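Tutorial handout. Part one gives the primary structure; part two gives the three-dimensional structure as tokens.
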Amino acid sequence: MLRERIDRMNALVEKSNPLSSDNDTLDKAMAWIVLTTDELVTCQQGNGIYAGLPWFNEYWGRDMFITMPGAVFCTGQWETARSIFSDFAKFQDRNPESETLGRIPNRANLEGIIYNTADGTPRFVTDVYEYMQYTGDTTYLASIYPAIELSINSVIEHGTDADGFLVHADADTWMDAKRQGKYPCSPRGNRAVDIQALWYEQLRSGAKMARIMGHDDESRRWDLAADSLLATFNRMFVNTADTLVYDHLNADGTPDLQYRPNMLYALDMVADTAVVMKATRDAWRRLVYPWGVASLDQNDPQFHPYHENWHHYHKDDAYHNGTVWLWNNGMAMQRMIEAGQQDIAWQLFENMNRQALYEGAVGSLSENADAWPRKGAQWARRSGTFLQAWSNAEQIRVWYQGFLGIRPALLDGCITLAPRIPSALNTLRYSELIGNGSLLGAFERTADCRIYEYRLSGIASRLKFDIEDFATFDLAVTDGSTVRVKVTDSELTASVTDRDGKTTSKIAIAPDPAKAARQQAMNRYFEGTHFAVPSMKENLPSLSRYFDPPLDYSSIE
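Part two.
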């Protein structure tokens, strides 16, 4: 009875879906995920996005700016984006005596404003820049630039150490749980790897926006700070001898060796390709379970296999010490796709689509899951909120930006198209809003070739193609034109036809031997990569105590 009801709802949602393929689960799941995500975009204290339901029906800056690319940019909600930026910038900390000067709030609700996050503000800045890349809208920048300027200069002047790293409190990252509101459950020193990556991107994005504003001196200063940070990061966070990236530096400057997923967010900064490849593969084997990305390696003494296990430990102790967080799936899949391993990434993506359709609240992805299945079960139990904005949004983002490879850069006058379609899909039709128009795409796989088609509507742009083993190439495309790219093992041909069907240009290129060789090497490296396998050990430190009656939120051990 329940399955029949779900199938009827799926049929209704499918009618309005801008995506169709030969994979029924994909079509229905993405339609539902887009719909339920949009339900979280609302107006409470200004415009914003609820972090999740049922508990987080309020705005969290960190969650919101992680959510925006998938929830707002990939769905073309430009007015909503501007409203969110402007409304949240109003609450920026502008008190010159404050330790959090320049920060955008971490939480804003009817009860008050708090600034206890180091990552919300960098994401605010990079989201503004990404909005402009999707829209080409530079007129909005003048109104929001003072907030960007203050956010960067306040950190440079008061919030960095001698090495240029952004310093923060132990629980000012997304791993922010505290017992009794004051004891961090997963302290990450004062220089976390993901925070440094976000700070770097904040500087780079800020520098580009400063140039648009004509603030050339400021732009150069921020770029120089980013240059210095990049060099220092590779020296202090990257261990090339052991091919690893540290999760954080402790207050005394020593590197911490806990294995967490946060280094995935910093791999764009890593100069050594071997380190990037190993970090991606190791993360998949050690942290990426079929149901999502764990927050801590299961061999760590602090590992907690189940989110809620009150007879053995407080829930907050497990929150970031083993519990799966579905929002990290997006970056885990993105890194695999960047390595040309879209079929590996697709396994996780498909599992999430099934969750959205047939587990929990229909059309939504949960906040968390256990790292290990409970006794007698084959699949891990979901936990946390039943609908979490950033879990949904990252599934949307990685579909459009990762698998479809659509990356608008209208400030640069182009749209990059780097499709990495998994072998499970043979036909696709889809659309995405970009700027004042849209991009309509289609894909077909046959026994001997792959065909990609793109049509611009209401927009003209230079299209920059990155098709697997072939060198990148550009095509200038006018409004209403269609590009058809046919790929075989030996040749790529591309043609452009205008709105009247007249062919305006053609090209034919052979595979790029160097690019093909790199991809073959990566294929060999990632061959056999599998999901993390629960060890199901019973002698874990976290399970060594038993409380009867069980603990609750107010328990103090």
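Part three, for discussion. The longest helix spans residues 216-236. Residues 12-16 have pLDDT under 50 and may be disordered.
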